Amino acid sequence: MSDPAATSISRPSFAELFTPKLVTVLREGYGLAGLRDDALAGMTVAVVALPLSMAIAIASGGTPAQGLYTAIVGGFLVSALGGSRFQIGGPAGAFIVLVAATVQQHGMEGLFTAVLLSGLLLTVLGLLRLGTYIKFIPYPVTVGFTAGIAVIIFASQLRPLLGLALEGDEPGPFLEKLPVLAASLGTFNPWAAGIAAGTILMIVGVKRFRPGWPGMLIAVAVASAAAAAMAAPVATIESAFGGVPRTLPSPSLPDLSWAQIVAVAPNAVGFALLGAIESLLSAVVADGMTGRRHRSNCELAAQGVANCASALFGGLCVTGTIARTATNVRAGARGPVAGMLHALFLLAFMGLAAPLAGYIPLACLAGVLAVVAWNMIEWQALSALFRSSRGDAAVLGCVFLITVLRDLTEAIVVGVALGSVLFLHRLSRMTAVSADRPFVDEDRADGAPDRRQAYDGRTASDPDVVILRITGVFFFGAAGSVGAVLDRIADRHSALVVDLSRTALIDSTAVQTLEMLHRKASRRGVRMILCGVGPEAERALAAQGLAPPAIPFAPDEVAALALARGP
């Protein structure tokens, strides 16, 4: 029996689970050297986040200003309250599909309500300490839906990439979008396509030859200057949205009527689920790069507060962003102050350079998102999964197709279900039953001994005792195959020893299988003995009535054999 004191010490307290990493860093000692490193890292991340936040917001059906609001308000709170030292919060490309669909269905006011509700849900998930379980999502599922999102993002940028002019609204679903875009190819704008291609080439070139430079910002600046100098006939932020404001708006509550809440509840659940997955994956990436360890439940709670605040300021969904978080780590950040400064730098950029943002062509931002979509696809992981396992490849393919053709939330649910079934199938194949002698007598030549010599020398003196060893995880997935083997026990045995010492887990279905075996053995006059029963298995067996004196227990096979040969 475990020591209660030891158990209480091993379990972290509420304060330990939900203390922001900012507090931890300040307690460790934070000086001017750390502030300098965090300021440089925050500036670097802000330069990357500036064009990306606007591009993601536009692709989501919002305005470029909303992307900046999200990065400033949400990014500051994620770093200040979160459970990761290096997490950078803001709008993410993974949300483009869900946000755009929500705007089309419920309008911008409905989006703000959904973001607020998702924030409340994320906070509850964190406080209920469910962050650990959210991370239990099969790797093929995350790779599949990320690749699917990338395809949808790229498809959503075909119109600005090619400068197409549509007569009506662009359809959201993938299969409906492509015919409409194909019918509009006659409006192809070579200026827009040239600007988009130049932007992509500059981003790729800077990353190739000057990886430390802010390629996206350089490409956007050069493309915008070239388009303005040549008076290119392309849509810009100014012509499409009227420019970017210099300050944050005043906070206000969205529509919280019961009808609105019911209408956007499914969207809010989707935001919360995707936000939890994306943010925790980003935190895990940061942990792998730095050797640190994040607090998942604290991170979820911080993401929830950040989303609530973003909704109040007219922003979009906030989550941890893998690319910007990795940039923060590479730039030498020491702690959460870097993320907080990144948000303040963005606020300063918005106040100083808002008029210049109006000159940015939409085709240029589409080029930025095309690069983002390409980078989202984990090409090496795709190749490795398809080579290593047909089951994983099938799960990945199903999630990818459902994401592109149906719905992201549906894809995650189906993917997790398929991944779980695949895991249980593999687990069941690891469960085996072995015996110290064959279950059925083999054919023997004339003159052979009356009894076959046992394989196990310990039972040679009493061949009527058979030992069964169950290895692996004895659960409902393996109970059928194990039960089929156990059913072959012949009534010629006087005693049956079932060794559970190599069994890692026993569930209720397995206990029921053993109980049926015990009844069958009793009817045939075969004495059944269990050995190597652990504490968890003992409690499960006792609940089913499989406990002394109904059935004897032994610590090991030697003791079990002694019981079998006794009275």
UniProtKB/TrEMBL annotation:
Q: Boundaries of each STAS domain copy?
A: 455-564
**InterPro entries named among the record's database cross-references:** SLC26A/SulP_dom, SLC26A/SulP_fam, STAS_dom, STAS_dom_sf
Record-given protein name: SulP family inorganic anion transporter
State the taxonomy lineage: Bacteria, Pseudomonadati, Pseudomonadota, Alphaproteobacteria, Rhodospirillales
Classification via SUPFAM superfamilies: SpoIIaa-like
Mode of membrane association = Multi-pass membrane protein
Residue spans crossing the bilayer: 39-59, 65-81, 111-130, 137-158, 178-204, 216-237, 257-286, 344-374, 394-424
Q: What is its main location?
A: membrane
> What keyword terms does UniProt attach to this protein?
Membrane, Transmembrane, Transmembrane helix
Question: A Gene Ontology CC term for this entry?
Answer: membrane
Report any one BP term from Gene Ontology: transmembrane transport
Write down the species. Answer: Marivibrio halodurans
- Cell location: Membrane
